[in-house]
Amino acid sequence: MSGREGVIYLDNAATSFPKAPGVAEAVADHLLRAAGNPGRSGHGLALAAQVPVDEARRRLSALLGAADASRLAFAQNATDALNTALWGLCRAGDRVLTSGLEHNAVVRPLAELALRRAVTVERVACGGQGTLDLAALETALRAGPVRLLALVHASNVSGAILPVAEAAALARAHGALVLLDASQTAGVLPLDVRSLGADLVALPGHKGLLGPTGTGALWVAPGLALPSFRQGGTGSHSEEERHPERMPEALEAGTLNAAGLAGLAAALRWLEERGVERVRAHEEALTGRLLGRLGEVRGVEVVGPAEARARVGVVSIRVDGWEPVDLAAALDASFGIAVRAGLHCAPLAHRSLGTLPAGTLRLSPGAFSTEDEIDGAAAAIAELAGG
């Protein structure tokens, strides 16, 4: 068992558990010994609090292949980062393209922008396996000027990894900016902002990066000035009424979650030592094992790509005779298996995949999941499906 004794935790797509070794200790150490306000004072505790913030920024930038760490601004989570990007970029009358697989963290800000700023939002069709139709994307790009392509890197419902590099190349060829939602891929897939071709990347610290909740980041490409929609204290240029335009202060108004970033720095150290490639290999192997086991169970329908290499560690299923929420409750109560059921805050993805209105049962192994846990979960589902 991983994490809490007696629990098989397969809800890492929502948040990772357990966290990386050293994370809890780093958070506690900050709160007990160095809980000054980073960047706000010159005394020892404030300077000590700044150290893990700088470390987390440096290590996360390196993980993204970004040479200039100042281009990475911390956020509360991926939702906060995505809102910062969308509200900063989208102007009155802009046309924005997105996919039918997006999370509400993209869908809802765009809906609000359509109401408040008359932004036109168009969704590009998805293929049968829940991935992006590149031909449909090119057709949409040719139809008129596009300000932004906002695209999820991997679906949190189907697990499908989208062809983001190809999509970004098409978008840039038509003069559009590219915002990538890396919520399900940061720390899980090797990410290089240069090869991906994105102009902005939003990511959470608490999922594949194995850090605390309340942490996230937005990377902004050099040369792109993103207006802030939140202003306040930054610890710099305090004599000026206008908020600083220099990164990262431009997007970091107010006191940062220094305790959380201390934990994130510890998680990033572990990831560097472990290697994202090894984490990916481990999760891909477990995902393949889970797909194989579930494929043997009568009455189980697996949603999304058939091959593990085409998806992240996310496996959504439907089981004959069961509502997903009831199946999840039975797995928790009778077998101690923690999974998620329903719409996963991504109703558009379920519409694209044909799994509305009930949604799916989602199992998501993580960096610390084991083969025994995968087998145990598959066996429990087989028992319930048979009953």
Topology:
Layout: E1 8-9, H1 23-33, H2 44-63, E2 72-75, H3 78-89, E3 95-99, H4 104-117, E4 120-124, H5 134-142, E5 148-152, H6 164-173, E6 177-181, H7 193-196, E7 200-204, E8 216-220, H8 258-274, H9 276-295, E9 300-303, E10 315-319, H10 324-335, E11 337-338, E12 340-342, H11 347-353, E13 360-363, H12 371-386
Parallel strand pairs: 1-11, 3-4, 3-5, 5-6, 6-7
Antiparallel strand pairs: 2-8, 7-8, 9-10, 10-13, 12-13
Helix pairs in contact: 1-8, 2-8, 3-4, 5-6, 9-12, 10-12
What's the CATH first level of the largest domain?
Alpha Beta
Largest sheet: 7 strands, mixed
Total beta-strand segments: 13
Roughly how many Å apart are the termini?
A: 25 Å
Assign an overall shape: globular
Essential attributes:
2 domains; 387 residues; 7-stranded mixed β-sheet; Aspartate Aminotransferase, domain 1; Aspartate Aminotransferase, domain 2
How would you describe this structure to a colleague?
The protein is of the alpha/beta class and 387 residues long. It folds into 2 domains: 252 residues, Type I PLP-dependent aspartate aminotransferase-like (Major domain) (Aspartate Aminotransferase, domain 2, 3-Layer(aba) Sandwich); 111 residues, Aspartate Aminotransferase, domain 1 (Alpha-Beta Complex), CATH 3.90.1150. Helix content is 39%, strand content 14%. The strands form 3 sheets. Strands 2-8-7-6-5-3-4 form a 7-stranded mixed beta sheet, with helices on both faces. It has a 4-stranded antiparallel beta sheet with strand order 9-10-13-12, covered by helices on one side. Strand 3, helix 4 and strand 4 form a beta-alpha-beta unit. The longest helix has 20 residues. It is globular, with a radius of gyration of 21 Å. The protein starts with 7 loop residues before the first strand and ends with a helix.
